[in-house]
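Ticket #159: bound-state structure for 4'-phosphopantetheine.
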Amino acid sequence: MRRAVCPGSFDPVTNGHLDIITRAAQLYDEVIVAVGANLSKSTVFTPTERAELIREATKELDNVRVDHFEGLIVDFCRRNGISAIIKGLRAVSDFDYEMQMAQMNYSQAGVETLFMTTNPLYAFLSSSLVKEFCKYGGDVSGLVPANVLHHLSARLAQP
Ligand code: PNS
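RESOLUTION: The complex was predicted; output attached.
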């Protein structure tokens, strides 16, 4: 079975992420969406909550499953028999960081990273911008799945 992982912090998952996950699922027998910790980011949702939001949003995709992990993504890959990491690239600004991680993961563990170009419809989209926009009353419907919209609005409304 050809299995790939789409890792990310997904705080929360956006329509841009879903586009990448859906396209990856057309290329691989199984895609695992793995919610991890990016130590440079603080989060609104716990890893379990983020995974559950993705699970709801991908329930129509039969070959996608969702998990969360602690530690290194390459160890998650080893444990799950995964040979490729799939990451979306929005713009040149993503490239340096993604390239560094990809080379680190390949040089230390032999795990390949495949980059998928983001659908231009979502080139500007990030979880951070969605949170900021929503926090100050902006309309983010159309940028995130309906379940995320509901939970994000409720969470950000809390004092
Ligand atoms: O959505 P993000 O914030 O770009 O996701 C980054 C993430 C979580 C995929 C990345 O930070 C990661 O893989 N973290 C796990 C720890 C790890 O393996 N770090 C070394 C990367 S070379």
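RESOLUTION NOTES: The mean pLDDT is 95.
TICKET STATUS: resolved
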